[in-house]
Fold this sequence. Notes:
elongated, 10 helices, 75% helix
Amino acid sequence: MELFSVKGYGATSVSMIADAVGIRKASLYNHFESKQALLDELIASVIDEYNRHSMFVNVSWDDEEFTRDKTDLCAHKVAVQVKLHLRYILHDPTVSRGRKMLMIEQFSNPELGKLLTKMNYDDVMSYHVGMMRFFIKNGVLRDAGAETMAAQFCLPISAWLNLCDRENEPERELEAKALVDKHIANFFELYKA
């Protein structure tokens, strides 16, 4: 995963993989029939980790069970949740490397490009559209179009996450977290009911 997330699948040879794990190239084939089989296993682990831990999957803002503890959400509490999720995405080795690997491979592998779009855009937007509708329905925010509001809310955060991924500097992460706080406070103020 480390090699694929830095060099990409195409630029990583089986010899490089074997060297990285400290075995002979022939021994690697005892575990995986091909480099593609290894990639498939890594993708499966990324998808599994995503499905188990991402705040954007398997939730419905229309589900009373899910929203039961969300009625007191405010800008500050949302910012705390967002920053916790950012920390998880940036620092969990499987998630962080998986995201980077998908970013590298999105243009050469259409299936991985679709997976990246699902994880980084479709699921994120769907979650936030539901969240905006929930806030509108509960009188927290005024209705300015849930889809537009969701995009205005989450896409800057996605851009800051990508910046942190690319630059991988602690100062950049601190800057992003401060921007998240300001952004969410401003958003809630702008759209307050």
